[in-house]
Amino acid sequence: MFSKQTVAVHVKGMPVKVHLVSTGAVSVKTKFRDATKTGMLAMLDFMLDKTFTEWMPIWVMIIEHPEGFFVIDTGENANVNDKNYFKSSGFFANWFDTTQFKFIVNKEEEIGPQLNDLQIPIEKIKAVVLTHLHLDHIDGLKYFPSTEIIVNKYEHDKPFGDLPKLYPSWFAPTLIELNQQYEAFDKAFYLTKAKDLLMVHTPGHTYGHCSIVFNTDEGCIFFGADICYSQQQLINEKYSGTNASHKLAQKTYAAVTAFAKEHKTIFIPSHEAAAAERLKTLTPVF
Ligand SMILES: [Zn+2]
């Protein structure tokens, strides 16, 4: 439904390819995406909402960095189509995940086959970096049993809305503490020796939610995951109905906006179809 996008950029003059692939499609309650209230009221509002959004992508980003290839999030898998998929997570999770969301994921859209299509062997992946632990970001982990998985320790210690029953049995990620300041962000962690690729703490959606900053010669590619559903939401300071903390979400919007005003920033939320075109044309927020 959403075609993959590849852009050729450079780091210190060296060519790097960045790919965006969608591991299927998701639709959510309209007021889950576009809230007019906050906190519990927003939650009540979207649960009572009878309308769903259009189909949206579930992006995974692959960076062919000279220090090694990085996979950012792992997307969804085709088992999510099975109506019993959430049963093991308990009554509430089963009700919630089968009534508030809709998924369409084909087997060939999973991250494994997509890497295959790109002729990238799994062994070439230096690390998988998870922005947070929600199912549509971790359900492709099954392809990476021998790859290093990097997770913010705080996200792991204080998850919000994750479904541990869906973690692979072998799941034992490298937990890192984000203990550096980076520009507008209080907490960051460098993923490369060149210090051009980093995780920054962008809480709100979950307490430990992270974004990925990739500084290229052509501009900063900012994988914002679930900070918001679209760039327009960020610019207009509109929020989704699903933040662990509205206050933290507001702080994160302010930090990302300040950063994007200082640097040419190409903003890629996990579920925005238009992000693919912005990546291709390297179109910044401001
Ligand atoms: Zn999420």
TrEMBL record:
Keyword Zinc applies: yes
PANTHER family, alphabetized: METALLO-HYDROLASE RV2300C-RELATED (PTHR42978:SF7), QUORUM-QUENCHING LACTONASE YTNP-RELATED-RELATED (PTHR42978)
SUPFAM superfamilies reported in the protein's UniProt record: Metallo-hydrolase/oxidoreductase (SSF56281)
Metallo-beta-lactamase domain residues: 57-271
Molecular function via GO: hydrolase activity; metal ion binding
UniProt superkingdom: Bacteria
Protein name (database record): MBL fold metallo-hydrolase
Annotated keywords: Hydrolase, Metal-binding, Zinc
One Pfam family, short name: Lactamase_B
Gene3D superfamilies hit by this protein: Ribonuclease Z/Hydroxyacylglutathione hydrolase-like
Family: Belongs to the metallo-beta-lactamase superfamily.
Cofactor: Zn(2+)
